[in-house]
Design brief:
single chain; 138 residues; mainly alpha
Amino acid sequence: MPTWMRVGVRVPLLLFVPVLAEPDQVVAGLMLVTSITYVAGWVIGDLVLRARLGGLATKETFGPVARMIAVSAVAGGVGWLVLKVTDDLFGSSAAGSLGKVLIGTVVIGGVALAGFVVARVPEIREPLAAVRALTGRG
């Protein structure tokens, strides 16, 4: 799917989020719309390429995508738990919000990275090999 088409679909949807969502849910809505448009782009792109090129290895790409979705869901759940715990610890001040974002980023990023390694997502192999080489474990 061409970039202009993805943007042409995503931007109007993103503009509707603040209209449809409660103020405290706008960021989550923006993330959801972005995720949905990426998945839709993948599906539509697969269909268009299949029509133009014939058979594709969709089954081979679906496995890693399904594993990434599962890992992301787990990381999102852990992030939600972290948010619930840090709400009471940090409060709603600007500094408290920054603290929640920083802790959430580290925790969600760590859980996602560990999950991608455990799930053997192909896209993580090269960066992991580079880190291992730098640390002398490659």
